[in-house]
Amino acid sequence: MSTADDPRIDPEEWQAQERGLRAALSGQRAAPDAADYLRIAQAIASAPQSGPPMRFAREVTLRIARHDAGIERWVSRVLLALLALAVLAIGAMFGPAWWGAIKQSAGPTASGWLLVVAGCVGVSWLAGRWRTRVQKHPRASSNCPTPPPPNCSPTSAPKRRPTASSG
C-alpha cells in the first residue's frame, strides 16, 4: 500500500519507521528521528520465538476428552433416556390409531412390508453399532495374540504352520 493512498499516514513518520527498521536489520546506528523505531525493531527482533510446547495438541485433546467424559456425557444419557421414554409413551398412546390409519391408507400387504423394512433398518443399525464397538475394542473380540503381529486382523485367527504329519 502506498503512503499516498491513505491520508492518515504521515510520510515522514513512515520513512522514519523504515530507517529504524533498516538500521536494526543492518546493525548500524539510526538517524535521530528513527532512534525510537530502532529500539522497537530491536525489541521485536530479540523477542523469543517460541512455539507451543511439545505434545501441546495431544494434551489439549486429552483435556477436552476428559471434560467431555464428565457431566455432559451423563446429562446426554439422561436426556436420551427421557426422549426414549417420551417416544414410547406417545407410541403407546397414539400407536394403534396411527397403525390403523397406515393399514387403511396403504393396505394390509403394504403395511406388512413396512414392518419388514422397519425390521431391516433396525437390524442394520444394530449391526453398525456392533461393528463400531468391535473396531473400538478389537482385542476384546480378537483371536490374535497380544500384541498382535502386523498381519493379524481382529477377526482373523493366528495362522498355524503345517506340520509334517498334516499332508
Describe the structure.
The protein has 167 residues and is mainly α. The protein has helices at residues 11-26, 35-46, 56-68, 71-106, 108-136. The chain has 5 helices and no strands. The radius of gyration is 36 Å and the shape is elongated.
Major β-sheet profile: none
Shape descriptor reads elongated
Work out the strand percent.
under 5%
Structural class: mainly alpha
C-alpha end-to-end distance: 84 Å
Count the E strands.
Answer: 0
The overall pLDDT, averaged over residues, is 78
- Show unreliable segments: none
Question: Keywords for this structure?
Answer:
167 residues, 5 helices, mainly alpha
In short:
By secondary structure, the chain is mostly helical.
Topology:
Elements: H1 11-26, H2 35-46, H3 56-68, H4 71-106, H5 108-136
Helix pairs in contact: 1-2, 4-5
